[in-house]
Amino acid sequence: MIGEAWEHLRRSIVYFRGNPVGTIAANDSAEEVLNYNQVFVRDFVPSALAFLMNGESDIVKNFLLKALRLQAWEKRIDNFTLGQGAMPASFKVLHDPVRRTDTMVADFGESAIGRVAPVDSGFWWIILLRAYTRSTGDHSLADMPDCQRGIKLILTLCLAEGFDTFPTLLCADGCCMVDRRMGIYGYPIEIQALFFMALRCAKTMLKQEAPGNKELLERIDKRLNALSYHMRNYFWLDHHQLNSIYRYKTEEYSHTAVNKFNVIPESIPDWVFDFMPMRGGYFIGNVSPARMDFRWFLLGNCVAILSSMATSEQAEAIMDLIEERWEDLVGEMPLKISYPAIEGHEWRIVTGFDPKNTRWSYHNGGSWPVLLWLLTAACVKTGRPQMARRAIEQAEQRLSLDGWPEYYDGKLGRYIGKQARKLQTWSIAGYLVAKMLLEDPTHLGMVSLDEDRNMKTLMTRSASWTV
Ligand code: GLC
């Protein structure tokens, strides 16, 4: 299966003027192509990790540099110009057989369904640049003035001051892996965890002595402190915390408020009470005024572990919960992108009647094999390789037989997704990365950061207001 996966992965490589620059999203000729013949930034990450772990770093370097060139383009949607730092969701190489040249087109959201700009692309780019540096020991790429500028442009976008009262990033629906309306607008966990990780990765690569960098590094530190405080306190949910929220008083005013965001306990959905084990916990999907999205999302929780946004106790608890709720979250095909699915009236309102995101399908509680590499990395980090092994074995029973689908449907992930592409590259690469991580846990360093002991972890409620 490993040999077969490598063959497919190599067949998905995209070349630009003779050099490999990425992998296409899916190699499925049976389904309508749409934009699956493009190189997606987020989809390339597991491909890149597989290549790095295999000692093939050229394609990753070329990709990082190409994405940087694209960042420099002027990005317009109708008459509006996007921030300079924005990175594309995807790009496409066009071959002109007559003139025998290649050109590139990138999508920053202006062609994407729903016209949403990807907030995650820039973060993944920074995270991948650090992975490349760690894996090859080659600091010259990250040190290049162009790369330093690229990092700064991305950070400028997300560290900009505005009307925000929270250190988290305010986002539109569909701005990350979940790239269509799914009710994740606000402060989605996926973006907050990637933001945190990207800030920490950037810190290791920005040159201290360059002009302006001292101030920038100070801003990064401040933001990391505030962000970790906010996430560890307000996004964290375990049995104890759920019980506190259940007993919240509302309409509290002033600095002594316990229920700061005025969450109405009646808005807690019934399923959470059953889902929450006595042992375990997780970062919930979203927190904003009077709104807590209690859904569980895998990507954000795993990235929280890898970046050490989660304290070590929280990391253990996240893994405990996955173990306790194995049937729901892993089922017959790892892994649920989110849990649970939304249905009925709520589905109509939240997704806008989206026929692709029906209950237990696609982004709405579907099962995505690509997520296997994130689970495995989190397992290795928390010293639970046997858990990853179990999930991988589960996937191995069907993944190749089914033709490496993009996602599976159903409560247990038993059915190949209704509109899932076959030969989906990140399903293939995610499997390879999971296998290689288990075999050689030293690869973990590429995608993991140790806990920063200087980060304040005051976990007392009502203490965030400083006069
Ligand atoms: C879907 C996914 C998105 C992915 C793209 C290409 O739109 O939601 O996360 O990048 O397919 O595979």
TrEMBL record:
SUPFAM superfamilies linked to this entry: Six-hairpin glycosidases
InterPro entries: 6-hairpin_glycosidase_sf, 6hp_glycosidase-like_sf, Glyco_hydro_100
The EC number(s) this enzyme carries: 3.2.1.26
GO molecular function: endo-alpha-N-acetylgalactosaminidase activity; sucrose alpha-glucosidase activity
Catalysed reactions, as listed in the record: Hydrolysis of terminal non-reducing beta-D-fructofuranoside residues in beta-D-fructofuranosides
Pfam families: Glyco_hydro_100
Keywords: Carbohydrate metabolism, Glycosidase, Hydrolase
GO BP terms in the entry: sucrose catabolic process
Domain of life: Eukaryota
Function statement: Invertase that cleaves sucrose into glucose and fructose.
Family, similarity comment: Belongs to the glycosyl hydrolase 100 family.
PANTHER family reported in the protein's UniProt record: ALKALINE_NEUTRAL INVERTASE D-RELATED, PTHR31916
Protein name: Alkaline/neutral invertase
